[in-house]
Amino acid sequence: TTSTAANKHIMWSRLRQIPIKHPLAFGVVISTFKTSASDLLVQTVVEGKKEIDWKRNAAFATFGCFYLGGVQYAIYVPLFGRLFPNAASFAAKPIREKIKDVKGLTALCGQVFLDQFVHHPLLYFPVFYGTREMVMSKEPDMMRMLRTYRENMKEDLAALWKVWVPSTFINFAFMPMWARIPWVAGTSLLWTCILSAMRGGDVSHGEDLEAPFPTGATFTLVKEGLDDMFACPVDEDAALAHLCISGAGPDRIGHVARMARTIADAGGNVTYSKMIRLGQEHVSLMHVSIPPEKRGELVDKLHNNKDLKSLNIRASPLVRRRTGTYQNAVAGFKIHCVGEDRAGMLAAIAEAIASRNMSIEDVQTEIRRGEQNKRDFVVNAEVVTTTRMDQEDLDSVIAEFKKLKEEMNLRVVDIRVHMDN
Q1: Confidence band for 234, pLDDT divided at 50, 70 and 90
Q2: Higher pLDDT residue, 296 or 158?
Q3: Which of 383, 414, 384 minimizes the C-alpha distance to 401?
Q4: What's the rounded Cα separation, in Å, for the pair 159 and 162?
Q5: Quick check: 23 and 178 in contact, CB under 8 A?
Q6: pTM score of the predicted model
Q7: Fewer beta carbons under 10 A from the terminal one: N or C of the chain?
Q8: Whole-number pLDDT of residue 229
Q9: Distances (CA, A) of 376 to 13, 97, 198, 413
């Protein structure tokens, strides 16, 4: 046993010495693997491809090997090592000594400046965009690529610096010289993982998501995802009339377009809506706001439109809640549940919500194929409460849903809370 432990210790010690003794080779391997893995994530998760484009993957892996592993290593280690001779010793110092080392801090800022404001804009961006143009465009045009880069440069650099300036400060301040390239590769892969998780199925932004660094386009995509995650509904405009317009009938292409056009031409505005095909039936439910004097005209147009007769359109007036007749919501919950389909799942979840005196503002359910090709029932509910909750109350809610998860054999129960301060 002692001999086995000693052998393991020796083997581990040797493995730990590999990146130190062979930093270039180690960085090349890590960068190649990272770039290949990032492209595989984009192809499978974001673009939803069933067959991997291995030629494209090999091209990006080659970029990772030669540029990220080779050229970046030459810049970060030999070049910066000569320009800033104390860079390695500064990174090894404890934080207390770093703070007192004025020359070291100046060298740190110099490295970050050269990397982010010289290297990336003038070399890294053009090389990467050129590689992407050659790999992903059916008819590569390098001049078009340069024009696009020039047009997007301001937004791309602003997005890049928001993530990479802090990351580069950490890299050059704390990482030993051999770990600089692995740190960059890790940060880049983490960024790709975040984008892939947030934008899964986003086939329209595949090229943007290939970038191993934040760009103006990808930063906007992340912001949209966060906005959607924390979005809150707004109340109706008191100066307008409000209608609930519903319709159901045999499904036909163009139903939504005809309803929306009729509403728009009459001066109405669709705010909240849900349209879905159930079997051979089309069902629409819309909230429409409209100037009061145009309400009658809209209703007549909907009822008299021959193309919409099959939907049996119904328009019901909505009355805005009066201030003082209800309590304002002070907390909101987004509840996401997934489990193998069985009768009573929605009833159990809704009862758990109601038992806490919480109101369901919006709930959507669907059936999808889950693990082992089984039918999964999915519930997404937006819930509010007028009762202020402390940590004990929240823990109690979570405990109740954990119990429900076991009772209903749910695979996923995700609860996100937004408190009104």
Answers
A1: very low
A2: 296
A3: 414
A4: 5
A5: yes
A6: 0.51
A7: C
A8: 46
A9: 48, 57, 21, 13
